[in-house]
Design goal:
Largest sheet: 5 strands, antiparallel
Number of strands: 22
Length: about 300
């Protein structure tokens, strides 16, 4: 019902000034020339029904080529106006751009280098607002001395000087999947999967969490998992060889929300990687089998 013209490409929910639930999404408009995600729409969700759909961004008339909006993230302000950012690929110069919508007009706030494959549907830039009404763009930098997730103050349609929210302590390692979330009372939260060895699929991957009340000040990142201690490994010796069974745990995506008691809780998807193998001696072959199981874990902080 929502997507009569074409499929949806990106969406995010938002709360209006009186607690009403809105859904903002991009879709194919069906206007020639074809461009996916060229129509951005806002609608209030009324229980099991959808309210009137209000176009926010409409496609440009032919023969102009419209923008393709993906990875939408944003919020509704106290006046009920929708603010969002999104990534837009450009075929003319092979540069991806971050565009912002302030409730009335579009602005380009960043352009990546040509052919830079930074468009990630798992880790897109996010637009948050703190308790004082100041906006923040959370993103990983295109270039940096250390792997990190940054908070860029966003005022007047421009990115300000960033602060590192989560970074590698000694400059070594890798930041994998990360998420940024709006919490109750204007608090902000960032989670990130960190590998100190740089092996983002390795056994030392842990989930780190940091919080902010605004002003660019963030708590020291805290590791909330113990996957290195959680792993299991068992070896068995037998004639002409031996066998091994091992399980490692790798966090992928996480979401944080504030419980009724005011304490945050973390819901995460973890990949349990199981490996079974046999190493044979003389005249005996070797083989191994690996499988993965998706787990959903909950932690109360």
């Amino acid at each position: 019902m929502l997507f009569r013209s074409g499929g949806a490409y990106s969406w995010f929910p938002g709360l209006g000034p009186h607690g009403e639930l809105h859904l903002i999404w991009s879709q194919i408009s069906g206007v020639s020339p074809f461009q996916p995600g060229d129509l951005v729409v806002d609608a209030e969700l009324l229980g099991g029904a959808v309210g009137a759909k209000r176009p926010l961004i409409t496609p440009a008339p032919a023969p102009a080529v419209s923008l393709s909006f993906r990875n939408l993230r944003g919020f509704l302000d106290s006046q009920g106006r929708v603010h969002f950012i999104g990534t837009c690929p450009n075929s003319d110069d092979a540069r991806q751009r971050i565009m912002s919508f302030d409730g009335a007009a579009l602005h380009q706030i960043y352009a990546y280098e040509p052919h830079n494959g930074t468009l990630s549907f798992g880790n897109p830039p996010n637009l948050l607002v703190d308790a004082a009404g100041h906006q923040h763009v959370i993103n990983t930098p295109e270039h940096s001395e250390v792997a990190c997730v940054r908070d860029y103050p966003f005022e007047g349609g421009a990115l300000g000087d960033p602060v590192n929210v989560i970074e590698l302590p000694d400059g070594k390692g890798t930041v994998g999947n990360w998420q940024a979330m709006q919490l109750a009372g204007g608090r902000l939260c960032v989670t990130a999967v960190v590998s100190l060895t740089g092996d983002i699929t390795g056994e030392d991957c842990e989930l780190y969490v940091s919080f902010s009340d605004g002003g660019g000040k963030w708590t020291a990142p805290v590791c909330v998992t113990d996957n290195k201690g959680r792993k299991t490994s068992q070896a068995t010796e037998f004639a002409n060889g031996g066998g091994v069974v091992a399980t490692t745990y790798i966090p992928f995506f996480a979401s944080v929300a504030t419980a009724r008691d005011g304490h945050p809780g973390v819901l995460m998807v973890t990949n349990a990687h199981h490996l079974s193998g046999v190493v044979g001696g003389r005249g005996v072959g070797s083989w191994s089998v690996s499988t993965s199981t998706a787990l959903v874990d909950f932690l109360k902080l």
